[in-house]
Amino acid sequence: MKQVILLLLLAIIEQIFAQPYFYNRSKTTLFPEHKLFVSNFSDPSEAKIGTQFYLEDKNLQLNIGAAKDLVHHRIDFKNSLAFGTEFFSWTLLHRETQFRFPVITTDYFFGGYFVFYHSGRKIDWVNRIRLSHISAHLSDGSFDKNQNLWLNNQLPFTYSREFVQWTSLFIHKNLKLYFDAIYVFHSIPELKYNTITGAGSEFVLIGFPEIITKIFTGFDLKFQKLLINKFESNKNFSAGFIIGNEWKTHFRLAYQYYNGYKIHGQFYTSKINQSFINLSLIL
Fold first, then answer.
1. CA–CA separation, 73 vs 63, rounded Å?
2. Distance CA 103, CA 62 (A)
């Protein structure tokens, strides 16, 4: 009799845990499938996997990385929290004949973040606090073996930055608008100033459900006060196609235009004005 009762209890428990409503009532989810904070593709400091082909010269940028939420906690029907981590690298390469791509420099980015998501009647409000580290390194493509010299007399040096970033994002239907505040609390070489502010937007213009594709455009604007006693701008514009669900894993084919300081740390005092074709997978 005890064995029959135990089997019945096990069967009931199995059915309860198998019901969708049980999971929907759960307040905490480990390793969720989606992210609460959906980043702007046009922001160069957001993780992605893919390649940017320079249109003005024979360089290309290889991006490898992802940001993933580890925990979601639903406070109530309107408010949720998330904690996640991200690892990201962007590598500058030079295109040569015979399918050779010597590496010029590589930057490494990693850190963690907290997200608060409020779901409103018409506008959702999302806040992310990010604590991150960046380091950069010259590679063999920056060295001329025949001359036994570093190209352009650019010697490798120790480069690292640690910063905290607050981003406030507003979502209304197919439009995203956000504001940034970044404080660099440690850097090598030491910076004269340590403040970056910014804003950006992304808009899905039109969708084609039959081929799971959408047309989007986005813009990211940063004002940095790092090297001199005034704010200087970094502008990045994107437009192209989203293939898949932009809230989850998807692919993007886009044209990009960037004007501002180079994002590669070994060249952080130099500026660039460049167009790209970007092929990226967003996890």
1. 30
2. 10
pLDDT digit string, tens, across residues 35-72? 999 999 999 999 999 999 999 888 999 999 999 999 99
* Domains defined along the chain, listed by start: 27-282 (2.40.160.40)
Q: What is the pTM of this model?
A: 0.85
Residue 27 reports pLDDT greater than 60: yes
Among left, alpha and beta (phi > 0; psi -120 to 50; other), residue 247 is: alpha
- HEC profile for the chain? CHHHHHHHHHHHHHHHHHCHHHHHHCCEEECCCCCCCCCCCCCCCCCCEEEEEECCCCEEEEEEEEEEEEEEEECCCCEEEEEEEEEEEEEEEECECCCECCEEEEEEEEEEEEEEEECCCCCEEEEEEEEEEEEEEECHHHEECCCCEEHHHCCCCCEEEEEEEEEEEEEECCEEEEEEEEEEEEEECCCCCCEEEEEEEEEEEEEEHHHCEEEEEEEEEEEEECCCCCCEEEEEEEEEEEEECCCCCEEEEEEEEEEEECCCHHHCCCEEEEEEEEEEEEC
CA distance 159 to 133: 11
Q: CA 109, CA 90: separation in Å to the nearest integer? A: 8
How crowded is residue 98: how many other Cβ atoms within 10 Å of its Cβ?
A: 4
d(CA 191, CA 228): 9
Rg of the chain (C-alpha set): 23
Nearest to 254 by CA among 57, 79, 50: 50
CA distance linking residue 173 with residue 24, whole number of Å: 24
Q: Where do we find the tokens 């997978």? A: 281
Residues 6+ apart with CB under 8 A from 243: 212, 213, 250, 251, 252, 253
